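quick one, two chains, predict together pls
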Amino acid sequence: MNLPDSIKKLVEKLSELPSIGPRQATRLVFYLISRGQDEIRSLANGIKLLEEVKLCSHCFFIHQNAGNVCSICDDKNRNQKLIAIIEKETDLISIENTRKFNGRYFVLGLIPKTGILEGWQKLRLQNLKSFIQKNLEEQADEIILAFNPTSNGDFNASLLIKELSPITKKITRLGRGLPTGGEIEFADDETLGEALVKRS
Amino acid sequence: MNLPDSIKKLVEKLSELPSIGPRQATRLVFYLISRGQDEIRSLANGIKLLEEVKLCSHCFFIHQNAGNVCSICDDKNRNQKLIAIIEKETDLISIENTRKFNGRYFVLGLIPKTGILEGWQKLRLQNLKSFIQKNLEEQADEIILAFNPTSNGDFNASLLIKELSPITKKITRLGRGLPTGGEIEFADDETLGEALVKRS
């Protein structure tokens, strides 16, 4: 049926967002209309504010500081020579929330399934290399490839190891084993196997 | 961890939308930032345009016509005396897409689980009654209670039948039976039972 243009276009636009299909997009639009003009305006303005978010010139995480560097990179108490490379900003938040990491981050962005980095990802890596060469006397102490513990993550890590080994003394990945609070009975074979191999 | 205020507030706001949790909301925000300022502005503007969407004064479906009435209610070729009451706007779209319905609609909104209508829903029903009394000589020919074929939908229909019977000659619901293209083998007992009772 023929819906007003403004609605059709917004449904299309929302459907392009990750994990939102055309059906949910339509529901969202009708929901917003039902909430009234104040809600609509407030959401539109909230989204518009994202225009002011900047990317850190060192790690590419978001920030709204006066300078070009995020609060984590700017924190002199953090170990500059320990760098966790992450794919998603939300992974950074998860790691930060553990309060167990005192290094810095580097947001590489989602690595394509082919394993071939996009142009902008290569530029970011280049940026990381120059940073390490200039500011860390040629080498970082440790780079953690904090990718998902999946075969895809393993593949991506193997590709990056060659590229990064000249600029760091050590390359590590996140530990593998039983998730805390889990039960051996319900662990899959792969996980239990890794837990045996990596026992400590 | 401490994210910029603009991001925290937008995540909260997006989490209030139906079937979007805080995790997806966070992912959406980072996705938008990664798409850049043009995309952000375009989505914000698209949402802002919803402010101009109006509700039809007869059926409460959305429209952007010059007057107060939607294109369906305004269509003189449609049967004014045949009214389908629906809960969700998306249900109207689904019915309209069948091209098998030539009557009008009435958007009641989602009926609360308690079966007790909200104040605004009572006002809408009142509006429907006055419309029928004034424009259809006291009675509609038929009102279809196009609710979901669930026990909840049955319950809601039973509550409305009493209220609507004075203003319509006939009250019906959508047909029950096997979905077209389905297989008897995979039909659940309830559906197959209904298909037997409603055989034709």
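Chain A has two domains: 5-52, 65-173.
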